[in-house]
Amino acid sequence: MAPSSVAFPRRKPTQERSRATVDAIVEAAARVFEARGYAHTTTNHIAERAGVSIGSLYQYFPNKDSILVALLEHHADDGARLIAELAARAEVEDWSLRAVLEHFVEALVEYHLAAPRLQYVLLNEAPRPPAVVALRHQLEDRIAELVSGLIDLKLGGEAPRPDIVAWLIVHAVEGLAHEFVVHPPRETNRDTLVREVVTLIEGYLTRRGETN
Amino acid sequence: MAPSSVAFPRRKPTQERSRATVDAIVEAAARVFEARGYAHTTTNHIAERAGVSIGSLYQYFPNKDSILVALLEHHADDGARLIAELAARAEVEDWSLRAVLEHFVEALVEYHLAAPRLQYVLLNEAPRPPAVVALRHQLEDRIAELVSGLIDLKLGGEAPRPDIVAWLIVHAVEGLAHEFVVHPPRETNRDTLVREVVTLIEGYLTRRGETN
Amino acid sequence: MAPSSVAFPRRKPTQERSRATVDAIVEAAARVFEARGYAHTTTNHIAERAGVSIGSLYQYFPNKDSILVALLEHHADDGARLIAELAARAEVEDWSLRAVLEHFVEALVEYHLAAPRLQYVLLNEAPRPPAVVALRHQLEDRIAELVSGLIDLKLGGEAPRPDIVAWLIVHAVEGLAHEFVVHPPRETNRDTLVREVVTLIEGYLTRRGETN
Amino acid sequence: MAPSSVAFPRRKPTQERSRATVDAIVEAAARVFEARGYAHTTTNHIAERAGVSIGSLYQYFPNKDSILVALLEHHADDGARLIAELAARAEVEDWSLRAVLEHFVEALVEYHLAAPRLQYVLLNEAPRPPAVVALRHQLEDRIAELVSGLIDLKLGGEAPRPDIVAWLIVHAVEGLAHEFVVHPPRETNRDTLVREVVTLIEGYLTRRGETN
DNA sequence: AATGAATGAGGCTTCATTCAT
DNA sequence: CATGAATGAAGCCTCATTCAT
């Protein structure tokens, strides 16, 4: 069956030039979404910014949403790669639990700070066609899985329901990082935030290790 | 904050009927947003659902955003009232820390579960004119303040930076409650969630009480 | 179930002004289709010609096709009424077979000559969404039925398969009248055409009355 | 008629491969028109179906209309050849009037049944640039002439205005055959149709032979 | 000659908002 | 004050055609 019309480019970019065009469009979309917000971005804005005709845009993307999806895919890949690298290094270099948490939290905060306005737009303003929702959940699940692995590594298998633990950690950290970027509490810098969040998670893991 | 032209109805509804109309419109907006999503809701939909002509709608609301603002105000009031009542009961009945946390987390989860789709729409799809942003931050600050008070009550004044602690707690819980409603982890019911989140916060508070 | 979105106006015109607008749009459509052909007529052309905003047009017609359908309905009604009146007079005034045929053929030629260019556009250029096809067949069936009645009246019930006979007559005459308007043979005026067509049909009916 | 820029390919296909390409395009056009209707057929569809790049298509056809014209020319040639063969056989084998009519009607019905959907599209949906109109009239005139010759052969020269008679016959039969394909009357098969139409024409010719 | 990426005018349609009744 | 018909700017998208490679 044909792929969902929303999520996939119309034709596979086989040629060099095609790929350049697609990339230019996605890149332009990121910038324009960031500058104007999703609702006030038109496909013509994007095409113009990409230095491409509107026709070319629609040669590769069947509609506005699909551009968003492509952009989110890029971002999701970035995020997943970030965590995967972290997990790899943690294993190789045998980090302590605290070190793992510090790096993890720092990475997520970094990730959100990198393009706060874009994050904001993607997470808060963009519409949520099924493809987008699925994508986001996929990313979250990927990350949760990695985190689950990390925990296992550190706490051994004794903790019950590591999936829930991972879920809690991932979303608590995600939510806090995002909120910090969007509306930070007064007189709180980034390092303070990271320290507090690490404390939060560490405390949780310790408790879980003991009690349950 | 100065009343922007966006946030306030054109004329004060002094008469009985006027208030009823305004309420009907806000109520209708909630239902239609919930059913169709923000982007696909038109002012005519809202008017129709409210059983009011589009002309009447614009008698009371200068534009579409102002309806959203009014609706958010309703919600914000609900949320703040919820927490305020909790705080009052906690003080009067002298709850334990664990009890306070349990009630607090439960209340927030409840709040999000009450109208998940609407929450979702309001939090994620709706545009963010300044008035809306301000409103949201106001609510969060109000809640954080209440929580700050609760903590103070339980841990005494020894904990440094209670504002940050409160901020962390509020947004961690908010984020987790919201995420739970939107995309819960497999095989996890509500009670499990509440228990885990309480553990998370409790662990954090304990640590903070000790270390810092 | 909701009526086909193509064939029906969006909202029932309850008010005076509404009906006037709808009529103006249909009337304008007839004129613009006639002047520019279907493919080169835009909805904006129609609205402009009707002295109405494009928004008003879409208040009453969900899309371009639906305007065509409305126009065809008008025409179909005109055609059916024409034949019905003829049938009534034929019965009351007890016309001869030849007289019936003459009037019938004349009426159809008249009908096609009235707005030849429009006929042309409607019959030949317009797209054929199911609604249009159904409409046309309906009209043809209505007319065939009336003709069937007329024949019965004149030839008595002896002719077998009066339905086929009526079908043949209606479409032969229709086709000839239409072709005559679009591309008449050299040096042939309208009276000649009518006389010949009547002869054609008369000969057929006579034969059928005898043989079959 | 002067060769309009619309009706002729840009360059004469002198080479083998060129002719093959042109044929493939025309053939593809027939199939795609049939499958999607004229309005929904794009030049890219045609090129793709022909297994040719869009650039190549425009190498041989200056615009979309010219493809339609080429296709109609093919069809017209087929139709004319059909009738010409019939006329030749009729003369050589000295058919009776009834036999001539039977073959003639049958051939036309056959012609329409062969590719009803394509007929439909070409006759009803396609635009009518002057070149197309001229082409169609040419074909009709060619056929009418042939029929005129046939009649002459059978009735002798006594009938006045044989041109009108031929015109009437051709278009009555054409119209009925087309209508039969598009929307046949209930419970009527092809043989019945042919018999009836022959009766119709025969009756007409007989009458005309007598009276006028 | 062939390819297919690129072009962009222009069509259809939506919907927040106004205003005559 | 209520009504709902009317407005029109502006957005999304198509597709015949061009042109660099």
Describe the structure in your own words.
The structure is a homotetramer of 212-residue chains. Chain A is an all-alpha fold and 212 residues long. Chain A has two domains: 5-60, Arc Repressor Mutant, subunit A, CATH 1.10.10.60; 68-211, Orthogonal Bundle (Tetracycline Repressor, domain 2), CATH 1.10.357. Helices cover 76% and strands 0% of the residues of chain A. Chain A has nine helices and no strands. Chain A has helices spanning 16-36, 43-50, 54-60, 64-93, 97-114, 116-125, 130-155, 162-182, 190-210. Chain A is elongated, with a radius of gyration of 20 Å. Chains A and B meet through helix 6, helix 7, helix 8 and helix 9 of A and helix 6, helix 7, helix 8 and helix 9 of B. Chain A binds a DNA duplex (21 and 21 nucleotides) through helix 1 and helix 3.
List the helices and strands and how they pair.
The structure is a homotetramer of 212-residue chains.
Chain A: H1 16-36, H2 43-50, H3 54-60, H4 64-93, H5 97-114, H6 116-125, H7 130-155, H8 162-182, H9 190-210
Helix pairs in contact in A: 1-2, 1-4, 1-6, 4-5, 4-7, 5-8, 5-9, 7-8, 8-9
Chain A binds a DNA duplex (21 and 21 nucleotides) through helix 1 and helix 3.
